[in-house]
């Protein structure tokens, strides 16, 4: 569960506010921080693009660096996102994993070890988040909403995994200091036509307990995400980057319904865990 929550977004904002709500805690932020006109106008465009988005699909590269351990983990996969009348659907699947010492990254890539191949799928159907991991032979289900029509599961500070496809300006202003960064050097060719947004958690925000900063690279043509990054502080620093390529937005072919169906049949050696949503007292 932790991996998905910190991933989607992806996604960078995941899990923290939802976790405090489940524990019965409430954070109080009395006022929003002022932002520049440039940032304000940009976030208006980002929110407008998110509101119009119907489908998003792309290849995905997930990289987590652990500086203190001098380890870098890389996984490749795909993401699918679809807005329907009665629900928002999402799927992420990973099909490999490669863990390396930092020193190995300086070697010729031809000499690197081969990634371990296996399927690790996550599907959200509007109510239930399901994970199927072929390596551990485990299926896990978590109920994260009582109604598929509840879109708050995707909003910052409201649900377990706010996606960068569901951004609302007021949510960002409430929880973060916001700055537009001018990149002097691009770290990937896919970021050529993007604008870089840096988010620093406000001291009063629950995100300040977990994150040093979060970053978004948005395409300047459609104001949708190309890359995200978040840095966790504390005893075990982690810097996670998710890059999307071969992006298809509102593709005329759509996304097949069976993409959002996960095989829950289990055979010998498999386990299944189901966790219903806790009732708030």
Describe the structure.
The chain is mainly beta and 281 residues long. It has one domain (2-253): outer membrane lipoprotein receptor (LolB), chain A (Clam). Helix content is 13%, strand content 38%. It has helices spanning 2-7, 16-22, 37-52, 169-175, and strands spanning 55-66, 71-83, 88-101, 116-124, 128-133, 138-143, 176-181, 194-201, 211-219, 225-232, 238-249, 271-275. Strands 7-8-9-10-11-1-2-3-4-5-6-12 form a 12-stranded mixed β-sheet. A hairpin with a 4-residue loop joins strand 2 (71-83) and strand 3.
Q: Key features?
A:
281 residues, mainly beta, outer membrane lipoprotein receptor (LolB), chain A, twelve-stranded mixed sheet
End-to-end separation:
24 Å
| Average pLDDT reading | 83
- Which CATH architecture? Clam
**CATH fold naming:** outer membrane lipoprotein receptor (LolB), chain A
Write out the CATH superfamily name.
Answer: Lipoprotein localisation LolA/LolB/LppX
Q: Whole-number radius of gyration?
A: 19 Å
How many runs of DSSP E, i.e. beta strands?
12
Biggest sheet: strands side by side, in what order?
A: 7-8-9-10-11-1-2-3-4-5-6-12
- Helicity, in percent? 10-25%
Helical segment tally?
A: 4
Global structural class: mainly beta
Order of helices and strands: HHHEEEEEEHEEEEEE
The biggest beta sheet reads: 12 strands, mixed
